[in-house]
From TrEMBL:
It is an enzyme of class 2 (transferase). It holds the Pfam family Aminotran_4. One of its GO terms (molecular function) is branched-chain-amino-acid transaminase activity. This is branched-chain-amino-acid transaminase. Pathway: Amino-acid biosynthesis; L-valine biosynthesis; L-valine from pyruvate: step 4/4; Amino-acid biosynthesis; L-leucine biosynthesis; L-leucine from 3-methyl-2-oxobutanoate: step 4/4; Amino-acid biosynthesis; L-isoleucine biosynthesis; L-isoleucine from 2-oxobutanoate: step 4/4.
Amino acid sequence: MAIELKPTSSPLSATERQALLVDPGFGRVFTDHMVTVRWVEGRGWHDGELVPYGPLQLDPATMALHYGQEIFEGLKAYRQPDSSVALFRPEENARRMNRSARRLAMPELPEELFLESVEALTRQDVDWVPAEAGRALYLRPFMIATEVGLGVRPAAAYLYLLIASPAGAYFPRGVKPVSVWLSTEYTRAAPGGTGEAKCAGNYAASLVAQHEAAAHGCDQVVWLDAVEHRWVEEMGGMNLCFVVGSGDSAKIVMPSLTGTLLPGITRDSLITLAGDLGYEVEERRISTDEWREGNASGEISEVFACGTAAVITPVGTVKSAAGEWTVGDGEPGPATIRLRQALLDIQHGVAPDKHGWMRTV
Ligand code: PLP
Ligand code: COI
């Protein structure tokens, strides 16, 4: 199915666009166009269009508004040294979106259609792709149930949309280490739930704990497992990575994918990159006791958050009901800096893409 292009010229002048690109922040500014594709039971995907960015008109009884059938993705397009633009591992986002779709009883979007949509929008709004290192065009594909009705069942009609937003640092303080709150009162995801799907409900349910983290002076919440409240899972919108040992013996430890956390594409890429850089990598469960005691003994030297929006952001301070500690010396550690640079160099096309992760649009 081809996406029909119905673009209009940008409502903004080049100067106005440049002004917005000076400090885009994260998710505040949107480009000129969006993609929409409809799905109806019995007919499948149809009416793919690239149209001017604008509001949606929805019936108040639209099912997504009542029972939360919404899934989304997040990926970035990076300006390359020759001023072309390339997407980072978009095929992985297409696959994860379909895993989320299956979990939420929504229709799968053919991978080629997903890729066609991200390429068409990136090409159309290419002037919005920032050129500075560490900046990129953030693409947000998502799908909502559009059938009108209040019966609780999988809807028979859906809308897939794609919007784009030029993005700088996700955290307002850039790559400065963030502080995290270990939440024991709330749970993000339980076995058999939707933790490994990227659905709106997971984020809605996390906001009260994010509030709690802020009340303790922290930037983010760290989620623990739902059963024992002692295994570290992930953060609100990013995975976590631990550096155990230091110097030549530093090992990268990623909390294992238990089914209750999101299998991050950045996480997966860093497992490969860490191996390339000579680190031993382990995927295993890591407890809050191990974190606290390992921090005190110096065994856990660095901890960082990783994700498309957050890139790699060091964790500097940890607070919990059981106490507070500083990770390492509270500054970004050497392994964190090395991995961050290695990832950004590939994404911005200044290091060889030996794993074939970049897809030129
Ligand atoms: N965990 C959660 C809850 C997220 O929302 C994200 C962001 O997408 C991640 C982890 C990191 O995933 P990725 O690296 O694919 O962006
Ligand atoms: C991403 O990194 O793409 C995310 O979805 C994280 C957050 C903005 C929800």
